[in-house]
Amino acid sequence: MAAKAAAKTGAKPKGNAEDYLRMYRQMVRIRAFEDQANQLYLSAKMPGLTHMYSGQEAVAVGICEALTDDDKITSTHRGHGHCVAKGAEFKAMFCELLGKAEGYCRGKGGSMHIADQSHGNLGANAIVGGSMGIATGAALSAKLRGTDEVTVCFFGDGATAQGLWYEVMNMAALWKLPVIYACENNGYSEYTKTAEIAAGSLTARAEAFGIEAHKVDGQDVLAVNELTQKLVARARKGEGPFFIELATYRYHGHHVGDINREYYRAKDEETEWKSTRDPILNFGKWLTEQGVASEDDLAAIGAEVKADAEAAVAYAEAAAYPPENEVDMHVYVDSPELNAALRGQPAA
Amino acid sequence: MAAKAAAKTGAKPKGNAEDYLRMYRQMVRIRAFEDQANQLYLSAKMPGLTHMYSGQEAVAVGICEALTDDDKITSTHRGHGHCVAKGAEFKAMFCELLGKAEGYCRGKGGSMHIADQSHGNLGANAIVGGSMGIATGAALSAKLRGTDEVTVCFFGDGATAQGLWYEVMNMAALWKLPVIYACENNGYSEYTKTAEIAAGSLTARAEAFGIEAHKVDGQDVLAVNELTQKLVARARKGEGPFFIELATYRYHGHHVGDINREYYRAKDEETEWKSTRDPILNFGKWLTEQGVASEDDLAAIGAEVKADAEAAVAYAEAAAYPPENEVDMHVYVDSPELNAALRGQPAA
Amino acid sequence: MREITLSKAVNEAIAEEMRRDPNVFLIGEDVAEAGTPFKVLAGLVDEFGTERVIDTPISEPGFVGMAVGAALTGSRPIVDLMFGDFIFLVMDQLCNQAAKACYMSGGKLNVPMVLRTNLGATRRSAAQHSQSLHALVAHIPGLKVAMPSSAYEAKGLMKTAIRDNNPVVIFEDKLMYQDKAPVPEEEFLITFGKANIKREGTDITLIATSSMVQVAEKAADLLAKDGISAEVIDPRTIVPLDEETILNSVRKTSRAIVIDEGHQSYGITGEIASRITEKAFYHLDAPVLRMGAMDVPVPFSPALEDLTVPTPEGVADRARAAVRGELFHAA
Amino acid sequence: MREITLSKAVNEAIAEEMRRDPNVFLIGEDVAEAGTPFKVLAGLVDEFGTERVIDTPISEPGFVGMAVGAALTGSRPIVDLMFGDFIFLVMDQLCNQAAKACYMSGGKLNVPMVLRTNLGATRRSAAQHSQSLHALVAHIPGLKVAMPSSAYEAKGLMKTAIRDNNPVVIFEDKLMYQDKAPVPEEEFLITFGKANIKREGTDITLIATSSMVQVAEKAADLLAKDGISAEVIDPRTIVPLDEETILNSVRKTSRAIVIDEGHQSYGITGEIASRITEKAFYHLDAPVLRMGAMDVPVPFSPALEDLTVPTPEGVADRARAAVRGELFHAA
Ligand SMILES: Cc1ncc(C[n+]2csc(CCOP(=O)(O)OP(=O)(O)O)c2C)c(N)n1
Ligand SMILES: Cc1ncc(C[n+]2csc(CCOP(=O)(O)OP(=O)(O)O)c2C)c(N)n1
Ligand SMILES: [Mg+2]
Ligand SMILES: [Mg+2]
Question: What is the dihedral of CA C54, C55, C58, C63, to 10 degrees?
Answer without folding.
Answer: 0
